[in-house]
Specification:
heterodimer; A: alpha/beta; Rossmann fold; 2 domains; six-stranded mixed sheet; 11 strands; about 35% helix; globular; B: MetI-like fold; elongated
């Protein structure tokens, strides 16, 4: 699986052998909610890179800070009362300004996002076609007819058969899988360098979620985009990503290749997490191992 | 079926609008002139009788439809569109830090406070300041009825404000003004729109009340409230027709507007649940 993916990646970069610039570089990223006594450190000193065409999975349990990390990179942590600091937070070689407490998020060219629940990411009263047109006009300044032609093309690419009908529909008339496909098309139509997907499949059932993951992979490969996927599903990550960033209690405890994580994992937590996954190998055991509620890492004082 | 469910309840209202628009072409007498002896009871010549000055009550009632409905229409349009925009702006800004947020919160409380001021007092003051005319009455009524529309829209904006698709639109590079009017407003305008036909009915009642209190339009102008008020003393003397017919017209207008409200509410609720 990974070998095929790597060879597909090799088709995207321009010069063979030339050093490819890192798409996203994160160094010592800290995110704090609240101030003073009520401050809560959600992400503590996270560091990792996303290389061109690479798919990174950020995994962790609820409250591990993985979603906060994804939102901060996307620039969606505005007005949430969060303080974002980092030694480096570079996207495409440019420093991202995520520290300012902006009132509303702004567009970062080259960066797109797919949210957990596609239904809430689409305006319920606007047709799919008009939402495409709005994005196209906002991003590419294209005319109405061009926007429609491009929308048709993108929707066909994400595997929607009845495009003309879907363009006239409103989000509540679509199924969950279909609306997530529409979201992927909307996210990709600005031709991003990095696609951030926050729990893209957790609102979908198992078979549809695999379809959507296949789609995310094929679309990002086709566009040469990198994928930063936030998920609690470590098995999904193993299958669909190149590298994994494992988070626990706000800290990055492991960054390693997805295919060899079982061997290469350096932290006890990652190993313990992997042991909790039901597989055909451990189907014979009476009880699946579970994680203790007690933090495996010394929990730093929240200040 | 849907067509019948919509047009059936709306029929009296549509009839009324047609009467307001074209009724003056059909009326037998000039509504602002003395055309016969005073205090004639209903007869073949004067179906609704004549009033104490000798003007034809039927002609005046029909001509009054135009004035009362026009005012109600203007008031509904101004109060609803103004209320929706103000509610949108207040709702989007009141949670902010800084001067904009302070103004927004202040405006929000002021809207709540305006509920404590009786509608008729506002009407009397505005008409007293600007004199009785269709324009000043419309301004007064719009002022009276706008706060509720503001409040309805604001409450809905507060619900919609944190929806994911707004941030999605922002990340796609849409401007904040565009997001407000293209995404927030369409998702938050429903309560105010549903309420607008109620605004229509209330504005007719309030304008008639002001007419009844004597701060409405000046006498020869046919206005239902003023007509009821002028005829009320005649009722004591057994001349029931001068105030009964404009009063019936008033009831019909308000009831038909209420029927439209109920229909719209039912239909939009139905559409939303599918």
């Amino acid at each position: 699986m990974t070998d095929i993916v790597l060879s597909e990646q090799a088709a995207a970069p321009p010069l063979p052998g030339a050093p490819r610039p890192t798409v996203l570089r994160v160094r010592n990223l800290c995110i704090t909610y609240g101030t003073g006594d009520r401050a809560h450190v959600a992400v503590r000193g996270a560091s990792f890179d996303v290389r061109p065409g690479e798919r990174i999975g950020i995994v962790g349990e609820s409250g591990s800070g993985k979603t906060t990390l994804g939102l901060a990179v996307a620039g969606l942590l505005t007005a949430a009362g969060a303080r974002v600091t980092a030694d480096r937070l570079e996207f495409d070689g440019r420093q991202l300004d995520r520290s300012a407490t902006r009132r509303v998020p702004v567009r970062t060219p080259g960066l797109s996002m797919v949210l957990q629940d596609a239904m809430t990411s689409l305006d319920p009263v606007a047709t799919i076609g008009s939402q495409f047109a709005a994005v196209m006009k906002g991003v590419q300044r294209v005319g109405r007819r061009d926007a429609r032609a491009q929308a048709t093309e993108w929707l066909t690419q994400v595997g929607i058969a009845d495009v003309d009908r879907v363009l006239r529909l409103r989000p509540y008339e679509l199924s969950g899988g279909m609306s997530q496909r529409v979201m992927v098309a909307l996210a990709m139509c600005s031709r991003p360098r990095l696609l951030i997907a926050d729990e893209p499949t957790s609102a979908l059932d198992a078979s549809v979620s695999r379809d959507v993951m296949d789609l995310l992979v094929s679309m990002t490969v086709q566009q040469g985009a990198s994928l930063l996927m936030v998920t609690h599903d470590i098995e999904l990550c193993r299958e669909y990503t190149d590298r994994m960033v494992v988070m626990y209690q706000g800290e990055v405890v492991d960054v390693c290749r997805s295919d060899t994580i079982a061997r290469d994992a350096t932290s006890d937590y990652t190993r313990a997490l992997l042991a909790c996954v039901p597989t055909l190998d451990n189907v014979a055991v009476d009880r699946l191992p579970t994680l203790e509620g007690i933090p495996l890492l010394a929990r730093g004082s929240a200040a | 079926m849907t067509r019948l469910r919509l047009w059936g309840p709306a029929a009296p209202f549509i009839l009324l609008v047609l009467i307001a628009a074209f009724g003056v072409l059909l009326i037998p007498f000039d509504p602002e002139r003395v055309v016969a002896a005073s205090n004639l009871p209903p007869s073949a010549d004067h179906w609704f009788g004549t009033d104490s000055t000798g003007m034809d009550v039927l002609s005046r009632t029909i001509a009054g439809a135009r004035i009362n409905l026009t005012m109600a229409l203007i008031v509904t349009a101004v109060a609803t569109s103004g209320g929706m925009v103000l509610g949108l702006v207040i709702g989007m800004n009141e949670a902010q830090r800084g001067p904009l947020g302070i103004v927004g919160r202040g405006a929000s409380r002021a809207v709540d406070l305006s509920d404590a001021v009786p509608a008729l007092i506002v009407g009397i003051v505005v008409v007293g300041l600007f004199g009785p005319s269709v324009a000043s009455l419309s301004i007064a009524l719009a002022l009276i009825l706008m706060p509720n529309q503001i409040r309805l829209t604001r409450a809905e904006v507060l619900k919609v404000r944190h929806d994911g698709y707004l941030n999605a639109a922002r990340m796609a590079g849409l401007s904040e003004v565009r997001i407000m009017f293209r995404h927030v407003l369409p998702n938050s305008c429903r309560p105010a729109l549903e309420n607008s036909s109620l605004v229509f009915g209330i504005s007719i009642i309030v304008s008639a009340s002001l007419g009844f209190l004597g701060v409405g339009l000046a006498p020869p102008i046919p206005e239902w409230g003023a007509m009821v008020s002028e005829g009320v003393s005649d009722v004591m003397l057994g001349r029931w027709w001068t105030s009964l017919f404009p009063a019936l017209a008033l009831c019909l207008a308000v009831a038909s507007a209420a029927a439209v409200t109920a229909t719209l509410t039912r239909l939009t609720r139905g559409a939303a649940s599918h």
